[in-house]
Amino acid sequence: MIYLDNSATTFPKPTEVYDFMNHFYRTHGVNPGRSGFDAAIETGELVSDTRKMLTQLFNGGSDYNRLTFSYNATDSLNIIIQGIVEKGMHVITTMLEHNSVLRPLYCLEQQGLIEVTYLPFDERGYVNPDDVKKSIKSNTKLMVCTHCSNVIGTIQPLAEIGKICKENGLIFVVDGSQGAGAVDMDMEKNGIDVYVFTGHKCLMGPTGIGGSYVREGITIHHTRYGGTGVRSAVPGHLDEYPYRLETGTLNLLGVAGLNAGVKWITQKGIMNIHNEEMKLWKKLRDGISAIEGVKIYCATSTENQNPVLSFNINGFDAGDVGTMLDVDYDIACRTGLQCAPKVHMGIGSFDLHGTVRLSIGAFNTEAEIDTAIQAVKEIAAIKN
User: Fold this and answer.
1) β-strand 334-336 against 294-296: which pairing, if any?
2) Which of 184, 291, 306, 312 has the fewest C-beta atoms under 10 angstroms from its C-beta?
3) CATH of domain 15-267
């Protein structure tokens, strides 16, 4: 199989990740923070070490306990958004967002709690920071923006948006699902208050683990309550981090895999990996864009871009193209709306049932890209 669905989840993972997860869970698969025996203490040290590594990776701040774990980015975005919004609040977001942002905001708006403004993106796939400034009202308190589009791969101008948010007293939340581990992140430099990540994409961890870093001074109200393993006599849920946003037993196996994944990308160099992926992306873009009857979307430059390419072939439904790539060429890709319907409204592919999306990862090769280009060329030739 030629795997070109890395935006959904990176595959395969580095061998080091598989090996460490297997070894660690066999020897330390116990509950951290609940007991004082050696294995529990050592397991707690792994969790703390992973918090520290991610805090440093994102340049979040000095308190690594504010790096909290969840099931995935969607889980954390629900915790963060619902923990920030208050009745009467105006929220700004973008047309580039994934349903992990769109649906919580939609449901809160339907309940009459908030008002939401959706900012457009330009023909290249980027939000104009000036539009953020123009959309601010007296009751605007929150800006939620994707780091990178999962459909067209464009990396958004976070520093400019963050500066506007800071100047106007807005909390700036960034969905880093497609950005964490894919490109360098500096929360301080970009003025980000909350950075949300998932482990199973470019951080090279397994599914079922994600989280967020919340900078000091940002209040996230409780939305979940339960056991923390400490101060059990307190009737209410604890306010201090990490317990404030974590309830129950952690996905320890996920944390272990994430720990190994972060070490792997750090050793390789995030931008080294990114640059190699973008060389393949340019080859893919140039090859596919030259095929008669193929339309690609927003793939104008290798700058501020992740290795994600969306396209359609005239006369074909995107889903049919995906099926042919799978059955006839053994190429795995993603078709449809990719859980981001407003992006497709913006690029004009919504009524076409979305796009065919090819997303490159650390383990793809030039030969695989050549095969993918040839496959698209042969499919397009059927009707062109």
Assistant:
1) unpaired
2) 184
3) 3.40.640.10
Query: What is the rounded CA–CA span in Å between residue 134 and residue 140?
Result: 11
Q: What is the DSSP letter of 198?
A: E
Q: Where are the domains of the chain?
A: 2-11+269-381, 15-267
State the fold for domain 2-11+269-381.
Aspartate Aminotransferase, domain 1 (3.90.1150)
Token duo for residue 183: 């490109």
What beta strand segments (E) does the chain contain? Answer: 2-3, 67-70, 89-94, 114-119, 140-146, 171-175, 194-198, 210-214, 294-296, 308-313, 331-332, 334-336, 355-359
Closest by CA to 173, choosing from 223, 104, 232, is 104
CA distance 99 to 20: 33
Q: What share of the chain is helix, strand, coil (3-state, %, to 5)?
A: 40, 15, 40
Task: List pLDDT tens digits, range 31-44.
Answer: 887 778 888 899 99
State pTM to two decimals. Answer: 0.97
